[in-house]
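Re: duplicated header lines in exported structure tokens

Our pipeline writes sequence and tokens for each protein into one text file. With two proteins the header for the second block appears twice in some exports. Here is an export where it did not happen, for reference. First protein block:
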Amino acid sequence: MLAGPPRLLSLVSVALLFGLAWWYLNLVQNPPTATAGSGVSNNGAGLNLDTSPAPAGGGATKPGTGTGKAKPLPIGRPYQGDPLDFGIAIRFTEPVAKPPGSTYSHIMVVPKTMKEDITWMDREIPDTPKIVYEVDNPDAENKVPQNKGREAMVYLTYIIDHYDKLPDTVLFMHAHRFAWHNNILQGQDSVRMIKSLNHERIARLGYMNVRCHHEPGCPDWIHMDRPGGDFDFFKKPEEIHWRRHIWEELHPGAPIPPSLSGVCCAQFAVTGDRIRQIPLERFIHYRKWLLTTTMDDQFSGRIFEYIWHYIFTGHEVYCPAQNTCYCDGYGICFGGRQNYTDYNDKQDERNKLFEELDVYQKKEAEAEKEGRKVEWDDRQKKRIEELRGLVHKMDPELERLRNEALERGKDAKARQEETENWSSEKIWEYMPKNG
């Protein structure tokens, strides 16, 4: 039997493998790093971000819980690899909230135009620190490279410029106080949302959309391969622009998701730690796309509206339970998903009745302005009285349910019951009892 040549080949192979391993380890463990705010990206293989402690930054504690400056957050697991190879998924570290009762430094990032009035912020939430970007003012204190891409340009610019000095929580909000996309159970009022926002939930999740209602955006929204004849030009105008080549420009190397689904409308909170677990080069890359795309400004901003959740969670579909968002996020607890659904069904029924009644009321108001009186027939008169009676009966019932939900939200145990958890320890306690 000839044993010599095979043994020699084996030794050469082993030596070669050891050499390759030594080369790879040196490449991965000793790369150059990118500097925050430099706008320079090193695309070499095995790039690491600088994981030295970040300097303390601005921000303040949650209103009513004390004062203090932001302390440097611990950096998450350093990213290894080409930061612009989106085929390498980021494995975010498990978020951990501070002990109950702790304070969270935070700042609110606000994009606005010169004509928008934000005096309500100083008046209603003076303890919430903010940084404002007046995008159409060349003399603004905080500037963006170009007024393009709506709020996305502001959000990305803030992150790039403050990457190394972020507070515990960064809250990205619009300039208007009242908006259709704000939470209905909070009067669509940004003030109520900001004042009651649970920073502990943000710390536990890493990212939270401040809107609780799923539509628009969830549970099944953007499809990049949808046939042209199936587009909904009214309900989902952004989907027309969300095609495969756009995804590949934004996320080169990443698999094409079957669906992109996340709650609208570009108002959210994210931890400083979560932001810094994403390579700075990626935020620079996103902003460069905004600056160079030929897409209409309105829709380039809408493109980002449906990927913020992907950027900060890694999930193409991210649709938290609405009742959990309200309960754990704001302290409005209906006692479970079914109770929340039942309330919304009642509210929808009431709204439909009121819409029908309002048609009659508007005709009466219009006639009064013209100095005349509407003559209703007997059937119409009967229906108007019926509608008024039903709405009058339902309003106090709905108010009672809302007040009970607010009261239930003050109970830590009740809030815990509606909060996401990974444990199956007590799962059988919730199984319906027979008989």
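Second protein block, exported in the same file:
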Amino acid sequence: MSYADLSAVLLSAVGVIVAIFGGVLAVAAFWGFNQVKQDAIQAAEKAGMREMKEQIESGSIKGDIMQEISKLTEKEFRSDRMEQRIKQVVDAVSFSYGNLKKDRELDLDGDEE
């Protein structure tokens, strides 16, 4: 075996070692990236929830939420569905002559919507 053959074998071995090391490094980098990504998502969720709680409890968004709730509540009270529900319950109570079981059934039927 000549010096040229020995150097070719050694260079090939170094190339294989570098390739294996590169593959291991790539797998570690991919795993690390996914882990960092998951940690960043969790941290963002926690920070977002904390900020939302703070804003809802004392921030400017509390007024906006209360205003929207008022609008939706008033809209529901003025809807035809609510009027029909009230008529059904009033008719059932008026004509049931104290049949409390029927009142409870009507009350439970309305909660399913």
